[in-house]
Amino acid sequence: MGRPAHRATTANIQGLYPFVAGPGLGSDATYIGQASTGAFCFDPWALYPRYLTNPNMLVAGQLGRGKSALVKSLVLRGVLFGHRAAVLDPKGEYERVAAMLGVEPIRLTPGGSVRLNPLDAGPGAGELGPREVQRRRLTLLQSIATASLKRDLRPIERAACRIALDAVSGGDAVPTLPQVAAALMAPGRAAADEIRTTPDELARSSHDVALELRRLCDGDLAGMFDGHSTVEVDWDGPLVVLDLSGLAEDEGLAILMACATAWIQAAVACPGTQHRYIVLDEAWRLLNDLGTGRWLRSSLKLARKYGVANILVIHRLSDLLSAGDANSEQVQLAEGLLSDTETRVIFAQPNGEIPRVAEMLGLSHGDRQRLLDLEKGWAIWKVGRTSHLVELDLSELEEQITFTDQRMVNGAGAA
Asked: pTM score, two decimals?
């Protein structure tokens, strides 16, 4: 006598039948590697708005697990699809990628010859309008001041920033940080009258802000953002790299990263231009300061408007949560970034962090188990509401270009 037939819905039976799997994301995109569904391809612009409501990405993984190789390969392969990239490189790891694409990194060092004006309006200023350009400049100024002072600005300090910025702007003039600092130090009668105070009182009230801005102009951070931009950049080329590896890793690095990123964003914020990745390596540093964290949040929300995909690269998701005390605004900002990065690529994480990672990302029980056993090159891709287990596939040439551990292995006698 034969066995009785078993009946079940396709939603249940697919878990038993090995040849049934969820669909991939399509093949008309950048090839990444192999998943259970076959070749896995990804393009944030092609997936919008069917799978994604914003193009931003978060890439997290322990050292040596493949996150850097993934981002670099995404930049290199994206060129074949007409995508461009701009990279903020605090560790100096993109030199070989730049050489492969025939470009020279822009190296920033204190007292060097290269200067970038974070208050540049950019080629899209005409589309934005003067009020929006000025609003962005003011947001950056106030963020820098907040991060430098490590506290919120007082109302009069916020007003002083706006008044000083307005005083050195106008017409086609492009303001610089030294000009704003000077205007804060010596406000005019008209500026004081605007908020019903005296020039001396306004200068005293904004003195701390002025001193912190002067640090970027003639202090230990001088020589990078204290004047008009001195570099000519081919923004129509495949890649622009800002190398910050010559800077000391101190409390001022987050401010410098914000200034550099603001300069990049002004340059690419032009409607109608080609799609571009903006890679923010060591992105957790921006969240260590409340001011730069707020600025980063507002910046990510502009991605759709200008066709850019911000890629935030961190080691651990706990890097985001370590930005401040529990329930602090900094932690809330960090958690809010997850809603502004709808593509999350998670390489191996420390075992003790997996429950928190699963909670933050809403991982299924299966994905939690996979995180425990992820080998080098494997990652869980959360793309919108879909989840994919993907092994990064690199060519021999790509492995040479993206390899970042040469100092370690060379010290052991490896080639």
From this structure: 0.87
